[in-house]
Every structure is written in structure tokens, then in C-alpha cells.
Amino acid sequence: MTQFLSSGRIVWATIPDANGIQKLRPAVVVKAANPLDATGRYDVVAVTSRVLDPLPEDHVLLPWHPKGHPRTRLNRRCAAVCTWLVQIADSDIQDLAGIVPTPIMGTILAKVAAAVPPNRPPAGAGGGAMPPSGPACDNND
User: Fold this and answer.
1) Residue 72 CB: number of other CB atoms within 10 A?
2) What is the pLDDT of residue 52?
3) Would the CA dihedral through 132, 135, 140, 141 be positive or negative?
4) Residue 4 included in any domain
5) CATH classification at residue 44
6) Which of 92, 140, 132, 103 is nearest to 115 (CA)?
7) I want to staple 86 with a disulfide (CB 3.0 to 4.6 A). Which of 34, 93, 98, 129 is the partner?
8) What is the pLDDT of residue 90?
9) Cross-strand bridge partners of residue 12
10) Residue-level pLDDT at 51
């Protein structure tokens, strides 16, 4: 994509599923790439459409509408999985979607901060982090 993406932007990126298989899925940028860093890496949380009831503590519902939400552009019920933190490269990003509204993004960032110990980078690089185990990790419904 070779452009600067800010926190809250929803991207479609290649991210591994629970079995380590690379899959194109939506993700929310939680930490933008440093513009002075030539690697162009972003910290993102994966988005799943397998939304359980009750909602797991590490999930945050995202606004959606069957015809595409006006801000997020999401067209099915889905949630950001705040413990599924992945670092992706600019080259992993296939497309851009919308933007997470500020109040919801604040909730996502707070849950990510609670899940990641201070001074610890996201697990893996280039989409190498593994999602939490369980059915909420696959976006194939």
C-alpha cells in the first residue's frame, strides 16, 4: 500500500489463523508504522466474524451494516480480538476499509494495553503472531 496508516484504520491483510495458515482478513491498526522506519510495520489486532454470546472479554464489537457501515465499511457482525496482536508489513496489506469510531478505538487500545505487558513487542513479525485458541479465531462463517 506504501502509505501512512493511522491508528483506527481497518485494513485487509494477510494474517495467520489458529493453524498458522495465512488468510486475508480485516484487522485494526493499533500502532501506526514509524514514518522514519523504512520497514513500514504496523501493530494490528485481527477481526473475527465468529462472535460468541456472551462476548469474550478480549473482544470489542465493531459497527457494521449488511450494506456496509458508513464509517467502518464492515458488512457483517464482527469483533476486534484484542489479544490477537500481530505485526504486519506494508506488503501484507491488500486493501483498506474504513475507520473505527474514536470511542470504540479507545476501548480496543485499553484492552490491548491490558493484554500486553509493558515494553513487550507483539508476538511475531510479518503476521507471525498466533491468535488465541478457540473458535473465535476463524473468520469463515
Assistant:
1) 23
2) 92
3) negative
4) no
5) 2.30.30.110
6) 132
7) 129
8) 86
9) 26, 95
10) 93
Please give the backbone phi and psi of residue 89, each rounded to the nearest 5 degrees, phi first: -90, 160
**26 within some domain:** yes
pLDDT of residue 138: 42
- Measure Cα distances from 40 to 9, 62, 87 in Å: 15, 26, 10
In a domain, 134, yes or no: no
Task: Tell me whether residue 44 is in a domain.
Answer: yes
Note the pTM of the prediction, 2 decimals: 0.80
Residue 137: per-residue pLDDT: 39
For residue 98, give the H/E element and its range. Answer: strand 93-99
Hey, how many other C-beta atoms are within 10 angstroms of the C-beta on 61? 13
Residue-range definition of the domain harbouring residue 83: 9-129
Structural domain count, the chain: 1
Dihedral angle sign, alpha carbons of residues 113, 116, 122, 124: negative
Q: Which residues of the chain have a pLDDT value below 70?
A: 1-3, 35-39, 118-141
| Angle subtended at Cα 84 by Cα 2 and Cα 6, rounded to the nearest 5 degrees | 30
